[in-house]
Write a structure and sequence with these properties.
alpha/beta; Rossmann fold; seven-stranded parallel sheet; 8 helices; binds nicotinamide-adenine-dinucleotide
Length: 264
Amino acid sequence: MSDFRNVQGKVAIVTGAARGIGKGIAETLASEGVHVVMADKLELVMESFEEVKAANPDNKGYAVVLDVSSEMEVKALVEGCVEKLGKLDIMANNAGMHMDTGNVWETEESQIDRILAVNFKGEFFGCKYAAIQMIKQKSGSIVNTGSFFGKVGHAGSATYGASKGAVHTMTQALALELAPYNVNVNALCPGLAASEMHWAFVQADADARGITFDEMKELELNEIPLHRYGYGKDMAGAIIWLATPSGSYVTGQLINVNGGLDFT
Ligand SMILES: NC(=O)c1ccc[n+]([C@@H]2O[C@H](COP(=O)([O-])OP(=O)(O)OC[C@H]3O[C@@H](n4cnc5c(N)ncnc54)[C@H](O)[C@@H]3O)[C@@H](O)[C@H]2O)c1
């Protein structure tokens, strides 16, 4: 097999990998022969990694419990990966959170601090330590998880949207900084994805409209041209492309992976 689309033997870190999009990314990468280090603040990541390992016994990855808002913990994550597995080919900075803050005038400073600490600083630290390693290697691919909420403002999500907008511009800046080192940096922008985070939105919208959860899901699906929610494997398809010669000319891009929901 040519290496044009082949990720066999590569090493990846996926943050936010206990569940949802991140777990799906890790499962798909592992099924393509990538050794995957799965990191999350939830202990559940241990169980999620065991599932990945059971399906892919040759996988040399492992699970790490950490908080991505801690620079020292992210540094240890990246350095530990390089020490154990020898390199880092793919950094998928995916861990993120949403919090119901209400409108701008109702938002507490502590909520702003936490959302920015996890969604922006968490991805920033992942970029920082992956960059330090990838500069030495002169190879690698960094893929951040952005959002369509980071491209267009949505009522009730000013802070979350700003955190993702910050991820987008950081992605572009780092792409320019790492271009001389043969490292590409991009952000994926999911639309509506099947995950615990999104089901909380669906429930809140359903409650606000006085309809059931399933009725709200059907309304949403009607908004998505491909008429299905996004999954981690959809994001993994783009990550595999970006991490191989087939996608190596793509850098600094905010790539919608959203079933046609939004064209911005
Ligand atoms: N679900 C959607 O519709 C949607 C849309 C656009 C973007 N996103 C983004 O996709 C990413 C994945 O979200 P998801 O939808 O799978 O949600 P999710 O809540 O199911 O998964 C997020 C994961 O990140 C982990 N996490 C949160 N804070 C952390 C921290 N401080 N340190 C380490 N891990 C932490 C959580 O424990 C969880 O396992 C997030 O960055 C989110 O903002 C999701």
